[in-house]
Design brief:
The protein is an all-alpha fold. The protein has a single domain, classed as Up-down Bundle (Chorismate Mutase Domain, subunit A). InterPro entries: Chorismate_II_sf, Chorismate_mutase-related, CM_dom_sf, CM_II_prokaryot, Isochorismate_pyruvate-lyase. This is chorismate mutase. Keywords: Isomerase, Lyase, Pyruvate.
Length: about 100
């Protein structure tokens, strides 16, 4: 059963909740990745490139804004998102035939 941080009374409770959240985050990342794959499928026939700088900037700004709203360090989370974005772009470049892996 899920516990709030205040309901955790031991490190075992804390670890179990962190493990639960990590599993949920991986599921969300997998869902996000499915959209990246679909984006590449949509981009290919219309000739869009993998790297669209305006969209990259928008996603980074969104990451900062969402982090700030959640009370998190916007620099740290923008950096994480920058890595996600770069990984996604590299994957799309392969799918679109822009680069070889």
């Amino acid at each position: 059963m899920q516990k709030s941080p205040a309901d955790c009374t031991s490190m075992a409770d804390i670890r179990a909740e962190i493990d639960r959240l990590d599993k949920a985050l991986m599921s969300l990342f997998a869902e996000r990745w499915a959209y990246i794959d679909r984006a590449a499928e949509i981009k290919k026939p219309v000739g869009l490139k993998a790297d669209i700088p305006a969209r990259v900037n928008e996603v980074r700004r969104n990451a900062r804004k969402n982090a700030e709203k959640a009370g998190l360090d916007p620099d740290f989370y923008e950096d994480i998102w920058a890595r996600l974005i770069q990984h996604s772009i590299e994957h799309e470049q392969v799918v679109l035939g822009e680069i070889e892996r």
